[in-house]
Amino acid sequence: MKTLMLSLMLTAATLTASAQQHYENRGFKALLNGKTPIEVMFQTTQNQDGEWMTAGYLYYPKAKNPAPILIVEGWYPEKQIVSKDEDETVSRFTEYQPDGERTGILYVTYVEVEGDFQMRRASWKNPTTGKVLQLSKFEEMRELPSWYPGAPKVLSAATRLEWQTKERVYSSEGPNSEWLDRIEVDFLERGKKVFTVKEDMSGAISKDLLTKGWEWVTNEDINFDGTPDVLIYVGMQPNGNTLNKAYVWNPYTRQFYPVPEFDEIQEPDIDRKTKTITSRARDYQNAYIDTFKWKNGKLKRVSSKTLPLH
């Protein structure tokens, strides 16, 4: 019985490894809006979590500074599209910039017959304006193009549950100092350090906090997608308001992205009902209230007002 179980486990491991290493490549060239050359290449594989994932890159060869743009199948802000033709496959990709901003949605419809990949139609949509541009004059690409940087990391990346953080808080003046002024936070993927955040802390922070259970790093959903993000406490302003560094998790790209806009938010009020984040800063004369909302993966200021305190 033990031999049989071991055999089944080895077989399953072999199949999983085989699935991870095998990529189904599909690609095409076309004209966007009838005039702009565009190339698209995407790959499908089964990751170690047993999920089938599709991702790739979009490329404009005639751009001033051409560079591959990540596309990942997923994130559907509107109703799912279903083809009336049972032989057709409809994929909807979201286009991501390196900072996590969503700058396009690519709709692709194709058929596959005995391994032959044929494009039927495609379009590109601006998620901000809603403007749609059609693709035409398709040409299949059977080989990975020279500009292709390799399989996107998302196809093998860990889930949010497989990420942890580990912080170190200390004084740059040495262990005998009574005040803390540095924080370093390691982001670990499956136990392996991927990157470290290093920050000088603001304000007078007592060393006593190290033994009082102070939460230097908290997991909190700040972009209202149901998945916890990361807030790093970096001190406080002279007015007593807290300051934080923020890193949001994208479940589709499976990456953490820094949120530089969060640096200016003091004493954040996170309202899940309105999906807004409000900063409430003040000095000796005024209170400054700024409200932020998420738009296409970026935190944007939507309102700002100043109120006199006297």
Provide the descriptors you would attach to this structure in a database record:
single chain, 310 residues, Lipocalin, 2 domains, 4-stranded antiparallel sheet, 1 helix, disordered N terminus
What is shown here, in short?
The chain is mainly β.
Number of domains: 2
Strand order of the largest sheet: 1-2-3-4-5-6-7-8
- What's the average pLDDT? 88
Please give the count of helices.
Answer: 1
Secondary structural class: mainly beta
Beta-strand content: over 45%
Order of helices and strands: HEEEEEEEEEEEEEEEEEEE
Rg (C-alpha, Å): 24 Å
Termini separation comes to: 81 Å
Number of distinct beta strands: 19
3D shape: elongated
Specify the biggest β-sheet: 8 strands, antiparallel, barrel
Please give the share of residues in helix.
under 10%
Describe the structure.
The chain is mainly β and 310 residues long. It has two domains: 22-155, Lipocalin (Beta Barrel); 160-308. It contains one helix and 19 strands. The chain has one helix at 2-21, and strands at 24-32, 36-46, 52-59, 69-73, 88-96, 102-113, 116-125, 132-140, 163-170, 179-189, 192-206, 217-220, 229-236, 242-250, 255-258, 269-271, 276-282, 286-295, 298-308. The strands form four sheets. The chain has an eight-stranded antiparallel β-barrel with strand order 1-2-3-4-5-6-7-8. A hairpin with a 4-residue loop joins β14 and β15 (255-258). The longest helix has 20 residues, at 2-21. Mean pLDDT is 88; it is low at 1-21.
